[in-house]
Amino acid sequence: MLLACPGPASETDSAPVAEGSAQVQSLEAWGLRPGGEATVALGPSPSFLLPAANLEPQRKPDFYAGKALSTQPWIRAPATTDARDGLGPIYHARSCLACHVKGGRGQSAGDDGLAPATLVRLSLPGRGPHGGPVPEPVYGTQLQPKSTSLSHQLRGRAGADAYDDEGVPAEADVRIRWKARSFIYPDGSALELRAPELEVSSLGYGPMDPGVRMGLRHTPALAGMGLLAGVDAADIERLADPEDLDGDGVSGRVNRVWDPESASMKPGRFGLKANQPSLRVQVAAALNGDMGLSSPVFPEQPCSANQPRCLAAPDGNDADGFEVSEALLASMVDFVASIAVPKRRKPHDPMVLRGQALFDAVGCADCHVARYVTVRNHALPHLASQEIWPYTDLLLHDMGPELADDREDFEATGREWRTPPLWGAGLARAMHARVGFLHDGRARTIEEAVVWHDGEGRASRDRFAALELDDRRALVAFVRSL
Ligand code: HEC
Ligand code: HEC
Questions:
Q1: How far apart are CA 362 and CA 2, in angstroms?
Q2: C-alpha dist (Å) from residue 481 to 42, 239, 341
């Protein structure tokens, strides 16, 4: 990392801020408004489904239309409601919010091993089309554990055998088993951890290539996505230090990924390995890979050339050949972009303030970079020139062997992950009980997430672990206040 993070204590240092951008606001404003003017106060049962506080009234109907499209379940084609059919034929979930619960992170696997909000990505080693992952020849790049066929939908119910039709098989059953682990602090106290073990069974299309690699992806939260889209690419590039020239053990690299819209390589920003160039492509990829819906960005069905029954199934395409039209896609993208950032809780509590100083002191802020000012020419005017505090550098970091999934994704190696934003992380527990942090949802608490940091995060993790118990608690209290 070449630039030190200017915490609010050092306002005079220059944060990575676009030239000519808005004036730096006061410490008070930071404490209260991490999403700038887009920040909203959330009540005791929070959800990330509120519009940015400064969303223009004339844009609100679009926000709520996009929210409805992201909430209501899609159905199989053909159906009489033309606008909502086309699910599958193979898919993972029926709506965006089935995984992004209340716009937040997904539910991690329970005792039954079912993890409704954790995807399985697939690939063979090497570089595929445009330098991206090499698809498994039959199953593609993502497992779709569900099918719209009646035999699959009625599975386990009396009389289901009668429907053992020519329907499209689901790709597999997926379960996660947790293996207990523990972390011992230098002061001798222990923290119980869990690591996932993936079980894939009932393969619907025969065995997979023996070289296949599988990576778990747990659903992240959607707060502030449009503001992250507004961080200037030059600011991110400035933070990158791929060769670790400053020798602090923290490098940070920009992923370079294929953008199907401009048909060119672009810096990656969204997704847990920063493998998507824009919010629009990210949303279209979710429609396609997670729900089996075609759109102007990804017009194809989620079937590979080796899944003929899947390809032959009826689709829900409109006259233009899409299940999700340009207008519907644009409305969902604008909805996701305009989701508000929550106001901080107890930002001036003495313990939180102590934790904040420790966060900087142990080096968390080397990657979880606090502050930016969004670009002036943002496509959504309410998100332009906002001073924001997301706590991410949006760069890839090697997080060590335990967190590795051994899957390359464009420039990202199997050990690299994008630093996730921390705003809203402290609200996860209030949104549902099955919280999962980190890319596979293994961490149940912020403390667990921190002690899993290894690789480039190792030195910072060790400094955290060496703190007195009260200081560790203060640092976690600070993250929970975000
Ligand atoms: C099956 C569960 C699931 C469904 C359904 C789903 N998502 Fe996601 N979403 C995820 C996961 C998992 C990731 C991380 C994917 C990755 O990095 O490979 C993600 C990532 C994202 C991101 C990027 C977040 C970031 O921090 O970069 C956005 C935005 C997003 N989803 C929006 C949507 C929208 C909009 C829909 C509906 C069209 C949707 N998702 C449907 C699970 C889901
Ligand atoms: C070298 C860069 C780096 C440093 C230093 C670092 N982090 Fe992280 N952090 C990451 C990355 C990358 C991830 C995602 C890892 C994964 O998903 O497997 C992450 C994940 C997290 C998460 C989970 C967030 C989520 O949405 O799941 C928390 C909480 C967190 N870090 C807090 C901290 C704290 C506190 C410190 C200081 C003790 C710290 N980090 C230091 C890069 C870093």
A1: 16
A2: 13, 25, 13
Residue 453 CB–ligand 2 contact under 6 Å: yes
> Cα-Cα-Cα-Cα dihedral of 287, 105, 427, 45, to 10°?
70
Residue 449 CA to ligand 2 center (angstroms) comes to: 7
- From atom 35 of ligand 1, which residue's Cα is the shortest distance away? 283
pLDDT in tens, 287-300: 999 999 999 999 99
CA 384 to centroid of ligand 1, rounded, Å: 24
Pocket lining: 444 vs ligand 2, CB cutoff 6 Å: no
Task: Please tell me the distance between residue 220's alpha carbon and the centre of ligand 1 in angstroms.
Answer: 7
The rounded Å distance from CA 447 to ligand 2 centre is: 10
Cα–Cα distance for residue pair 338/119, rounded to 1 Å: 25
Q: DSSP characters for 31-60?
A: HH-TTGGGEE---SS--S-SBPTT--GGGH
List pocket residues of ligand 1, CB cut-off 6 Å: 70, 92-93, 96, 98-100, 117, 119, 217-220, 222, 225, 270-273, 279, 282-283, 286-287, 290-291, 332, 336
Distance between CA 109 and CA 219 in Å, rounded? Answer: 12
| Sequence-separated (6 or more) residues with CB below 8 Å from residue 340 | 35, 38, 39, 40, 48, 50, 51, 52, 53, 223, 224
**pTM score, two decimals?**
0.94
Listed residue (107, 133, 75, 22) closest to 323, CA to CA: 75
3-class secondary-structure state, position 195: strand
pLDDT score of 28 more than 70? no
Residue 9 has pLDDT above 50, yes or no: no
Alpha-carbon distance of 384 to 376, in angstroms, equals: 5
DSSP letter string, 356-378: HHHHHHTTGGGTS---EE--TT-
Average pLDDT over residues 161-166: 63
Q: What percent of the chain has pLDDT over 70?
A: 91
- Span 389-401, mean pLDDT? 98
Confidence of residue 400 (pLDDT cuts 50, 70, 90): very high
- 3-class SS at 426? helix
Cβ-based neighbours of 156, under 8 Å, separated by 6 or more:
none
**pLDDT tens-digit profile of 192-247?**
999 999 999 999 999 999 999 999 999 999 999 999 999 999 999 999 999 999 89
Select from 367, 406, 454 the residue to mutate for testing ligand 2; criterion: most ligand atoms less than 8 Å from CB: 367
Whole-angstrom CA distances from 342 to 39, 51, 349, 390 are 6, 11, 17, 11
Please identify which residue in the block is written with the tokens 């670790």. 244
Q: What is the per-residue pLDDT across 403-459, written as a single tens digit (0 to 9) for each?
A: 999 999 999 999 999 999 999 999 999 999 999 999 999 999 999 999 999 999 999
